[in-house]
Design a protein that fits this description.
Helix content: under 10%
Number of helices: 1
Structural class: mainly beta
Shape: flat
């Protein structure tokens, strides 16, 4: 009887100390965080065309290995990529054209096929060999949101533009209408970066802004559009 009791106790101890062979549910893969751009800073005038790019590292909840894709373009839509580089470091130096406006952005990729969204877009200008005028940066859309639908009889067109030459004075020509691209100039040498327009129902409108500085330089913006109910 005692032997039976001892065997029962030993059996219970082995059962209690045995390993749990059940596998936990695998953790779902998630994309890395969006990298934050560091330098060159937004609206920067680079004194050289050998430019050092730096950004804060992204994080990954699964601790996956991360690589970065940097895109550098001469237009703010990135329709054509001037430089495209992928690597694991969070910095790189590239030689670019002199006296040129550039736009750059970064995204993070993990080793399982997921990627973050692209970062915000920074813009900078490379210096030339001599003291020259730099063209304004391409305008950025503020309102109405691209491809949005409005239910009003009027709209306030709003945009933003900057120039690396801090003393330059900017003015704007605005084109607006139902043709794509718009051909009707509705404002010339406007100093404010907003303009109210009258709308008709069930129409698709297109508009663009040309940014001009007071030294003869000008930059043509992309075509933006919206609809009315």
């Amino acid at each position: 009887m005692k032997n039976f009791i001892y065997l029962s106790i030993i059996s219970l101890l082995f059962t209690a100390c045995g390993s749990d062979d059940s596998d936990p549910t695998p953790k779902a893969n998630v994309a890395p965080t969006i990298p934050a751009l560091v330098s060159p800073a937004d609206n920067k005038l680079c004194v050289d065309n050998s430019v050092s790019f730096k950004w804060d590292k992204a994080t990954d909840a699964n601790n996956d290995a991360i690589t970065y894709q940097i895109q550098i373009s001469k237009d703010n839509t990135f329709a054509q990529i001037d430089k495209n580089f992928e690597g694991a470091d969070n910095s790189i130096s590239l030689v670019l054209d002199k006296n040129t406006a550039y736009y750059w952005r970064i995204k993070a990729n993990d080793n399982k096929g997921l990627a973050s969204a692209y970062s915000t877009i920074y813009k900078f200008y490379t210096a030339g060999n001599a003291e020259i005028n730099h063209l304004p940066f391409a305008p950025s859309l503020l309102h109405p949101i691209l491809s949005s639908t409005l239910s009003t009889a009027t709209a306030s067109l709003k945009w933003e533009a900057t120039d690396v030459d801090a003393t330059d004075v900017l003015a704007y020509d605005v084109y607006f209408g139902t043709a794509n691209p718009p051909t009707q100039k509705i404002a010339k040498n406007k100093t404010a970066n907003a303009l109210d327009v009258t709308l008709e129902p069930a129409k698709e409108y297109f508009w663009r802004v040309i940014v001009k500085d007071n030294k003869g330089g000008e930059t043509v913006g992309q075509v933006w559009k919206f609809k009315t109910n």
